[in-house]
Amino acid sequence: MINPIVLSKTDSNTKQLFLEISTENRDAFNALFHRKYEKLVLFAQNFVAVNSLAEEAVSDVFVSVWINRDKLPAIDNPDTYLYVSVKNRCLNTLRSKPYTIAIDEQPDIKKTEYDTPHKEMEYRELYEKLNRLINQLPEQQRLVFRMIKENGLSAKECARILNISVRTAETHVYKAVKKLEEEITAYLGYSPKKKTTKRMIMLAL
Q1: Strands (E), 45-188
Q2: Nearest-angstrom CA–CA distance, 82 and 75
Q3: What are phi and psi of 81, to 5 degrees?
Q4: What domains lie within the chain, and their CATH numbers?
Q5: What residues contact residue 27 under an 8 Å CB cut-off, 6+ apart?
Q6: DSSP state, 150?
Q7: pLDDT digit string, tens, across residues 126-162
């Protein structure tokens, strides 16, 4: 007997939107777009370094979703479907425009409320340092870390998208967190986990 597929909460919500989109419900399509667009663009940036190409890949996937809406009810894991589709679009872009991988665009620094200009500068420097350290991680380790810590995917969802085992995904995150904590501790002179004011680091670690 084949065990039924158990959907995550995010998959269940997206599945409902897929079903509604299949009936030509434009409100459901807009809801899906606003809910997933930014996360998918962040994910795409792991493959193509140019932001405009990441946005183009994600937009193409949404266009495909609408055009092929009659096929959506047959998709068992909609979130995985979206991420895999974006990944494939990005890989196709790299094959046709290989130079794009060498182009570096500085990502926008997250907006946060600060008490003083000095504290704002401190957080900005800390964020930039953390971002550089993440970019220096081994390629697949960096990708898994961003998918789980920044895109909010589970290790199981990440494993499905990248076609790796759940244990491998968990190991990548463990090693990435350990490395980042060591580097940030050396940079700050103390462990970030002991300072609740370092909210940015705590979110990542």
Answers
A1: none
A2: 10
A3: -60, -45
A4: 9-102 (1.10.1740), 117-204 (1.10.10.10)
A5: 20
A6: I
A7: 778 888 888 889 988 988 888 888 777 888 888 888 8
